[in-house]
Amino acid sequence: MQNSFPEQSSTSQPRVQLLTISEEEAGQRIDNFLLRICKGVPKSHIYRVLRSGEVRVNKGRIDQLYRLAEGDVVRIPPIRVAETSVQVVPKLEFPILYEDPYLLIIDKPAGVAVHGGSGVSYGVIEQLRASRPEAKFLELVHRLDRETSGILLIAKKRTALTNLHEQMRDGVTDKRYYTLIAGDWKNARQHVKLPLHKYTTADGERRVRVQADGMASHTIFSLKKKYQRFALLEAELKTGRTHQIRVHLSASGFPIVGDEKYGDFALNKSLQKANTDHGAFKRMFLHAHQITFMHPENGKVMTVNARLPEDCEAFLFSLG
């Protein structure tokens, strides 16, 4: 991208920007592009200038759904960034499972959001961009819940992002998770097909419930090991709905250990302190341990694995 937003002091005046879209930036929607470029500007203001026609592409008016093409010249009107909204994102790298010019695959720790928003100032993607200022393009291919650990794919080229999104839409990718559930799980292999509906609670929290008119959802669970009060399962996602594994298990009567949204809250509290039956465990036991996909550049089938984190391994050992 040619030209960029300069640092603005409290005395400098914002001015019109003319930005030329590079190959890596092509294909994204104008609203998403502006949200990234105009850091610190409220989302509502971005959409207001889009609706007003002040943002032009190749001197013409566009709507918020317009997809940018390489060579497009985007006119961005003067937008003042509030001084208080500027925040320093700490530079942070994460354990790398695989990297090449097209892909970065990391092992995300539990408790870390993948991106900023919903009360979180920044997440994995913002921290990676801060630690790799020379990177022209870094975008999440998919998401993991904040409480979930494991494999996270980041695209280093827009072509890779588009290709992997197509694979996920077409069901080409195979994503597997390990999870520990409470209860007496019986079947070696069990399909759960329950429609899921997303909603927002009164205090703005995003939730999901089983609902007849919800989105079709399908998870296959395989029993890996039984313990006295628990069972270790592998979950294979056939669809990729928000909180799918967590809600499918909770609705089936087998809450995930440590799940603070859909789990057994009394059990979770009791597990936070060690006793003669188990060690202490203070997180949700859900880990993205394997993904299989076709490499976006050469088409070769790739399988990447991430071992169970030490705290999960230690808890399983304590159940012995």
General description of the model:
- The chain is α+β, with helices and mostly antiparallel strands and 320 residues long.
- It contains seven helices and 16 strands.
- The protein has helices spanning 30-37, 43-52, 124-131, 158-169, 244-251, 265-271, 310-319, and strands at residues 17-20, 56-57, 60-61, 73-76, 96-99, 103-108, 139-140, 149-155, 174-182, 189-192, 196-200, 206-210, 219-226, 230-237, 286-294, 301-305.
- The strands form three sheets. Strands 5, 6, 7, 8, 9, 10, 13, 14, 15 and 16 form a ten-stranded mixed beta sheet that branches. Strands 1-4-2-3 form a four-stranded antiparallel beta sheet, with no helix packed on it.
- A hairpin with a 6-residue loop joins strand 15 (286-294) and strand 16 (301-305).
- The longest helix is centred in the middle third of the chain and has 12 residues, at 158-169.
- It is elongated.
- It starts with 16 loop residues before the first strand and ends with a helix.
- Mean pLDDT is 89; it is low at 4-12.
Reconstruct the topology from this structure:
Elements: E1 17-20, H1 30-37, H2 43-52, E2 56-57, E3 60-61, E4 73-76, E5 96-99, E6 103-108, H3 124-131, E7 139-140, E8 149-155, H4 158-169, E9 174-182, E10 189-192, E11 196-200, E12 206-210, E13 219-226, E14 230-237, H5 244-251, H6 265-271, E15 286-294, E16 301-305, H7 310-319
Parallel strand pairs: 8-15
Antiparallel strand pairs: 1-4, 2-3, 2-4, 5-6, 6-8, 7-8, 9-14, 9-15, 10-13, 11-12, 13-14, 15-16
